[in-house]
Backbone:
């Protein structure tokens, strides 16, 4: 039992920022384990936005239909990933429209921890990828944990990396 629970105070929730990548299951699993340890509530956030050109070309009704379809598909995907990662954990799921980094940083003001999955960005893409994780690590008001989306030593082609070539610091650190 945590100190805050002993006084009848509910601990701040653990915020999990996820996208539609397969890495979300690893982040959900880690966050659920931590929520059990802390006695915290799990709050899952998915932020999305239409491409600028797409948003400008849609009517209000078309945009609303697209938003409703995206929210429904995303909710289904998150619920399935949560069942796989932590079937015994209930969570609050929020799907918000807007830039993911700023949304997660703002919501992290009321969280004990922000959990994100890391992505494998090979080569030059690592330098140019728009990194929500980097934004959150730079600006979040609470601790940020990044969880690898695949087991250590597995390359982006899913073939094991020889352990003798693995050096400290080989992880990409990008989200």
Residues:
């Amino acid at each position: 039992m945590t100190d805050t629970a002993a006084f009848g105070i509910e601990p701040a929730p653990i915020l999990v920022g996820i996208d539609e990548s397969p890495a979300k299951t690893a982040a959900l699993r880690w966050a659920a384990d931590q929520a059990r340890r802390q006695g915290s509530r799990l709050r899952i956030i998915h932020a999305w936005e239409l491409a600028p050109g797409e948003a400008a070309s849609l009517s209000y009704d078309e945009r609303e239909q697209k938003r409703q379809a995206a929210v429904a598909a995303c909710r289904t995907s998150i619920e399935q990933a949560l069942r796989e990662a932590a079937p015994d954990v209930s969570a609050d799921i929020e799907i918000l429209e807007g830039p993911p980094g700023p949304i997660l940083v703002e919501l992290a003001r009321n969280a004990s921890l922000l959990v994100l999955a890391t992505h494998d960005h090979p080569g030059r893409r690592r330098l140019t990828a728009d990194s929500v994780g980097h934004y959150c690590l730079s600006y979040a008001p609470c601790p940020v944990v990044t969880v690898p989306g695949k087991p250590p030593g597995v390359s982006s082609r899913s073939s094991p990396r020889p352990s003798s070539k693995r050096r400290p610091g080989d992880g990409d650190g990008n989200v």
Summary: The two ends are 32 Å apart (CA to CA). The helical segments are 3-6, 24-38, 52-57, 60-85, 100-107, 125-128, 132-139. The first strand starts at residue 14 and ends at 17.
